[in-house]
Design goal:
About 45% of the residues lie in helices and about 10% in strands. Strands 1, 2, 3, 4, 5, 6, 7, 8, 9 and 10 form a ten-stranded antiparallel beta sheet that branches. It is built from 14 helices and ten strands. The chain is flat, with a radius of gyration of 55 Å. It has about 475 residues and is an alpha+beta fold.
Amino acid sequence: MRLVLLSIALLLCSVYVKAFEDPTLEDDDFAEFEQFDADDDATVADFSEDEKEVPVEKKAPTKDKFSQQRDVEDDMLVEDEDNEFEHFQDPEEFEGFQDSVPRSSEQPKITISKVPISVRRRWDAYWLEGILCCALAAYAMAYVIGRAKNTSIALNFLKLHKPLLEDNFTLVGETGADVACAEGERGWRREAEHCFTMWCSGRVCCEGMLLTLKLIKRQDLVHVVMDLGRPSPDTLLVRVELGKDDCDPFVLCVAQKKVATRLAKEMQDLSVFCPERRPGDKHGLPVSMNVLSECAEATAGVLDSRLCGAITQYQKHVQYIHISDRYCGPKLMEDTAMTKPPETERVLLASFALSPGGGGDEVRPLLQLVFYLLEKLKRLRLSKEALAKCEKRRQKVAEAWLRGAHAARQEQAAQRREEKRKQEKERILAEDDPEKQRRWELKEQKRQQKRKAPKLKQLKVKAL
């Protein structure tokens, strides 16, 4: 029943709506706009007769609303960043500009003058390059001349004093490794352009002798210029390696005042065993010399009248003479931790300043002085009291080295423990277990308290 009533109501509504519709209107959505176009055509036809008498400017046909919107959208341009100055090429942009500019005005002409190219080169513009080239040429020339000069001095030294060396040693120099002498002949080994070495062996009272000829750096132009203000002589360094039974244990050094001061600060054995410097006139030496000695008996036994006379005669050439059974080189740095005593040697060291030109007549007496010292040290024997004092002093030094090494090892162990404890703390704090962290903190507090607690000695008493 309800469905029947609903269908009757819908039918009545449709009949009612159709009753009010305009039968003249067509079923076209654009009928309204076509009516407007027809009106416009009628208007144009009414005014067609008047156009013949009065010229009227033609108007563009009116477009509808939708076509105008399409044209506007077509005329829209999208700005492009790459074509920023495109409007300069648009002829409509500058419309009417040519009419406003007077025709008589002309564009200015740029005149480029022709400058003639100079054929002659101006060498004064290259003064810096010229100075550098001259400096390089001078350095190269100084290198060639200085190297040849040093080689000539080494060959001359070998020519003058090799017979004396061959009389005292079986083997003098090396074969095939030297470059300062003829091929197949024993002589110098070139360590540098200003340094030559020669090893001599095969003699009693020593195991061998090393001669080092340290010349001025004549091949270096900078060093030559610096040497003009503070000249330094050519030097002959003698190093004799003594055997265990060739010398009693003592340390002795005879040197110039400035050299003695420097050696006392730099050399380990002199700073430990010879802390006191004595003037040379108390031992029969020149005033310009100083003596550093460990044992007074050894000083009196070595510095006899013959040796003091030779040193006095050639005092300008003798820089130092160093005799030691505990020679270990320069002093170690203070921050260097030694875990064991350094290795020591029994040596005789001597340094002689040569005269200009690489040495002359003074070299032979100085070499004979070294050979005399070797014979002297071989025969010299200290008394039991002096020998006991020297041995006791060496034992104290060894104990001091052991204590220092033990302290260094303890410090290293403490550093390792501290580093390990730090890593353990970081590991505990990284974990999320508060109970474990609390136990570690209690353990650390107990350790700190135990460390700060005073140490008490326990005495055991035997029962009666």
